[in-house]
Structure formats: C-alpha cells, structure tokens
Design goal:
Strand order of the largest sheet: 7-6-5-8-9-12-11
Radius of gyration: 21 Å
Distance between the termini: 45 Å
Helix content: 25-40%
Largest sheet: 7 strands, mixed
CATH topology of the largest domain: Rossmann fold
Low-confidence stretches: none
Mean pLDDT: 94
Number of helices: 14
CATH architecture of the largest domain: 3-Layer(aba) Sandwich
Shape: globular
CATH class of the largest domain: Alpha Beta
Number of domains: 2
Strand content: 15-25%
Length: 406
C-alpha cells in the first residue's frame, strides 16, 4: 500500500489503467522512441477518503514552456469564468482596494475580468508559454509553482489577499499541504478560498474514467476536502455543483468559525453518503463499470471498421489519452483526431499515435462517425457541428454510456 498524499493513512489500490504516456504530451513522429510511460493506477484512502493516483509524474514533465492547454479555446468556459468573476467582484465590493490571487491562472481567462475592472490581482501559472499569453492580455502573472515561499513573497510585495481562487488546478497538486500552508499565510483573516475541480461523485455516477490521468493527482469529495483543509483551520462554508468539465464542484472555504456554513454543505454530505463515497466497494464497482465501458467501445469501433465506416476523433484532450491507451484505440480504428489548438495540429496523440489534424480537414471530408473525446463540451460542440449531422454524420459518446447519438 502507498502512503496517502493527504494524510498519514495507507491507500488501498482499486484500479490500474496499465501503461500510460503523459496525457497532454502530444508529440512529433521523431519523438516516438523516447516517449515516457508510467503506470496509471488509482487508490482510495479510508482514513481521509481521498481518491488519488498511486504513481506521480514529475510536475515539470507536465507543466512547462510547451504546455498545450489554453482555457480560452472554449466559448462555454469563457462565459463560465466571466460569471465567476462577476460573483467574486460582488463579494469584494464592500472591501477597500481588494486583492485577488489565482493559482493555475492559465491564459488569464478568469483574471482578465479583474484586470479590466482595475481590481488588484495576481495569477500564478507555472507554464511559461501560457503565462505569457495572460500577460499579453494585461493580467499580472508570475510563472511559478505556488507554495509557502511564494506566498511570503506575494505578501511582501502585494499584501495579503481577500480571495484565493483556483479552477481545475487544485486536483493537479499532489503536495497540497504546502499549498494550503501558503494560502494560510497569504489570506487575510476574513478571506475566502474558492476553487472548483472535477467532482468525484460525478466521476463515479457517470463512469467518466477519462477524468483519471496524470495531471489529476487527487479526486475530491466534500468529505476529503473538509478533512484536508480542516487540518489547517479552514472549513467548507458553501458548495456549488457545476456542469462544466463533465461535472465539477465549487468549494468555498473560510477560517473555522468566521462564516456561516450553508445548508448546501449539509445536503451534499448526505448525498455523498448515499453514493457510498466512503466505501471501498464503491470504487471496486467503478472499476467493473469502466471495464464494461471499454469492452463496449472497442466492440463498436471494431464493428464499424468491419463495415468500412470512417471514424474520426473529435478534440485532442488529455482525457482522450486515457481512453485511447486504456482501450487500445489506434489509427486503424480512429483515422485521426480533429482539434482546433494549433500547437497540437500536425502532431500525434500520446501513446496511441493517432494523427492530430486541423478542424478544416474534418469539415472538408466528413467521416461517417465522430468519436467525441470532448464529451464534457458536447452541448457547445454539437451545436457548432450541425452541418456534420445534416449530412448524416453520427456522434459516438462513451459517457455516461457507450452509444451512438441519433
């Protein structure tokens, strides 16, 4: 058993996805022979109820100057962050000269709204290329990993923060203790933490196993977040379920006793008990459901190949790396993956080495079927690709179940 990343307990393994490459490591053909692999395995800690990866990839191998994820490529996410910024600014309205810090601020998709409103802010983004895009948008950004030392430097230069934000980043950090200790130093006594990440309950309910990949070291529930932050004097005062990223949860935390705990927190605790998130058997059942989903997807793709149908992947995501490698999907089953991100185009998917091509190639010669790797953006994508359906094209999805959308 592995030691828990969040407490002093021991983690019980419940699933291995086998040999896996870096999820967002899209690569050129000449890099095939040097491509790194590791075992993607996941376990459950009964002591603090944290679900987590058992083997960690060094963060420098994932977040660097060639990092290939830019939040602003999604119109839906841009609107989501605009609304979040408006909510935070409303909370900050009574405060004189408020200061906001965001961890993993990416290309400034959230903080740009504070910059435009003249609100003091600082983004912390370790990927240098992405941080530079944020700076070009007028977002004050430091390219670094957040920890206690950085927190001290921020306080010395800017003072303490009123709000500490994070969106789809806290789950990326295996050593969260240093981050939380840094937040404790950085945050004012009456300050708030607000962060959102993929929600463990949704992953279990939807069998969305592609949420499990190297960048996601931790898989949060209200129970595990309460345990982890409680050790540093914080408590969850509100929760907000979100549809983004296939099912997420926004947690609002404050120092213990400083704010009223909402009824939503009590209701969510009861919901988690109903899901059985505190039981190992729940995760063993998840493994069985995942294995069944893999069998159904591979069977469908092989049948379509046998019928002479063309299948193209849609959206070269980190999630797609888990699916293609776990299911053994190679270019003989999926011809190429269409993606609008320029840095990925002309490269190959990690491990499976499926070509990644511009969206123009998808639109110029529609396939019979499109395998929707970006299922968490299905509403946005299907609306944009109505022409594909108008000529008889069909979508294949695998969450919450394998099916062809008619």
């Amino acid at each position: 058993m592995n030691p828990c990343l969040a407490c002093s307990g021991l983690v019980t393994p419940f699933m291995s996805f086998g040999r896996m490459p870096i999820a967002n490591g899209f690569l050129a053909r000449e890099q095939f022979d040097s491509e790194p692999f590791y075992e993607l395995a996941v376990g459950f800690c009964p002591a603090c109820r944290m679900v987590q990866l058992l083997n960690l990839v060094p963060r420098e191998n994932m977040f660097h100057e060639q990092y290939a994820f830019f939040s602003s490529t999604s119109v839906r996410m841009a609107e989501h962050f605009r609304r979040l910024a408006a909510e935070v600014r409303t909370r900050l309205a009574p405060k004189p000269d408020p200061f906001v810090v965001e961890i993993g601020s990416n290309d400034g998709i959230l903080l740009q709204h504070f910059a435009q409103a003249g609100v003091r802010h600082l983004g912390v983004e370790p990927s240098a290329n992405v941080a530079q895009v944020a700076r070009e948008r007028g977002v004050t950004t430091v390219s670094a990993f957040f920890d206690e030392d950085l927190a001290r430097r921020i306080v010395a230069e800017h003072g303490q923060a009123d709000v500490f934000l994070g969106a789809n980043v806290m789950c990326h950090i295996p050593c969260l203790q240093s981050v939380i200790a840094g937040i404790d130093l950085l945050l004012k006594p009456d300050g708030q933490i607000m962060f959102e990440d993929p929600y463990l309950g949704d992953i279990i309910e939807k069998t969305s196993y592609d949420q499990i990949y190297d960048e996601h070291a931790l898989y949060f529930s209200l129970s595990s977040i309460s345990f982890l932050f409680g050790r540093y004097g914080f408590e969850v005062v509100d929760v907000t379920p979100l549809e983004v990223h296939g099912g997420s949860m926004r947690y609002t935390l404050a120092r213990q006793g400083r704010q009223t705990v909402s009824d939503a927190v009590t209701a969510q605790r009861a919901h988690e008990r109903g899901l059985g998130l505190e039981k190992l058997e729940t995760y063993e059942q998840f493994r069985r459901h995942t294995e069944q989903s893999r069998g159904e997807l591979v069977s469908l793709l092989r049948r379509l190949r046998g019928e002479g149908k063309r299948v193209v992947g849609y959206a070269a995501t980190s999630k797609s790396t888990t699916v293609t490698n776990y299911c053994g999907i190679t270019p003989d089953l999926v011809e190429f993956i269409s993606d609008t991100t320029p840095v990925k185009q002309g490269k190959f998917s990690p491990g499976a080495h499926i070509p990644v091509r511009p969206h123009a190639e998808f639109a110029a010669n529609y396939p019979d079927y499109a395998l929707l790797f970006g299922w968490n953006h299905a509403q946005e994508i299907l609306a944009k690709e109505q022409a594909f359906r108008d000529v008889g094209g069909k979508w294949i999805v695998y969450v919450p179940k394998v099916q062809v959308l008619e």
